[in-house]
């Protein structure tokens, strides 16, 4: 059986080089070791050193040669709109407060996986909802991307000094 042993980020390869494709849901794009089927129905073993998230456009490198292009599957999602920027930020805060993955669309809308409880909460907060089937590619978590090292051009002092004057509010 073919084995995919590492991931190439979409910025590091040309998808035109792909041997084939594999379409996966958001949940299925965070794996370490699992038997999968590519879009042609051919099985392969995903066999990574550690679990990692792979995104739409990334490549899974096969140990016998070739790369499978990862495609985000169509999923049951909600696109959420606020009345204005401040209202949208408030809706985003409530989504984040529930530790819910969110995709920020180029339009400024927020996309979440469909959840009837969240939908009713956001409607109650004045959000407009559109339910559809679309790829779901949420923002990576703050700790999902490796930190840059000083050798990568980030050589500056990250020390921060704060002084706090504690005065009564009134």
UniProtKB/TrEMBL annotation:
Q: Which GO terms describe its molecular function?
A: nickel cation binding; unfolded protein binding
SUPFAM superfamilies membership: Urease metallochaperone UreE, C-terminal domain (SSF69737), Urease metallochaperone UreE, N-terminal domain (SSF69287)
Q: Which GO terms describe its biological process?
A: protein folding; protein-containing complex assembly; urea metabolic process
User: Could you tell me which InterPro entries the record lists for this protein?
Assistant: UreE, UreE_C_dom, UreE_N, UreE_N_sf
- Give a yes or no for keyword Manganese in this entry: no
* Keyword Cytoplasm belongs to the record: yes
Q: Which Gene3D superfamilies match?
A: Urease metallochaperone UreE, N-terminal domain, UreE, C-terminal domain
Q: Where is the composition biased (Basic residues)?
A: 158-170
Q: Which UniProt keywords apply?
A: Chaperone, Cytoplasm, Nickel
As for subcellular location, the record says:
Cytoplasm
Pfam families linked to this entry:
UreE_C (PF05194), UreE_N (PF02814)
Give Gene Ontology CC terms: cytoplasm
Q: Where is this region: Disordered?
A: 139-170
Query: What range(s) does the UreE urease accessory N-terminal domain occupy?
Result: 3-68
State the family it belongs to: Belongs to the UreE family.
User: Record's HAMAP family?
Assistant: UreE
The job of this chain, per UniProt, is described as: Involved in urease metallocenter assembly. Binds nickel. Probably functions as a nickel donor during metallocenter assembly.
What protein is this chain from?
Urease accessory protein UreE
Species annotation: Magnetovibrio blakemorei
Q: Which gene encodes it?
A: ureE
